Amino acid sequence: MTVRVGLTGGIASGKSTVSAILAERGAVVIDADLLAREVVARGTPGLAAVVEEFGPEVLTSDGELDRAAVGALVFADPDARRRLEAIIHPLVHRRSAEQEAAAPEDAVVVHDIPLLAEVGRVGSFDAVVVVDAPAELQVQRMVEDRGWTREEAESRIAAQATREQRLAIATHVVDNTGSLDDLRRQVEAIYDELAGQA
Predict the structure, then answer these.
(1) Which of 107, 140, 153, 176 could pair with 14 as two cysteines, CB 3.0-4.6 Å apart?
(2) pLDDT at 25 over 90
């Protein structure tokens, strides 16, 4: 039996590292961010729909989606964000369903969904793993690792679900305030438990 797992965490919480550890252990990881890029790649119906909704100024000179321009547009305007999500989310959902259907029958299938707490799909998973880190640590990581300003980091955190909202949906919490070894131990224990249910 396939075990369906939702994986989420705030920006710079360490979710990508957790996702990589789960994949190393044998989980089939379906990355919603990666799919969100694929469904609006140049030449796709998804990109055409975004251009139709927001205009050609969301394209780069070579016809790709201008992520920075779109990001600036939707982070400042909740209505624009909803309109963008209405295009992208169904396309991502369809692709993730196709990938899950291709997984082995007894797999642990991990859906890596940054905005899981926001999109209301928690009930469709057997377990929800939340990677947790305090906001101050998230800000520090974005400033140090990504070169963002403190204001950019704080506004990105503010645009996501709160830490409390994410923790409220968790069946498993990964505390990412320690070392990589600490993180790996927690994730491997959770994987072993989930694999035992498959």
Answers:
(1) 176
(2) yes
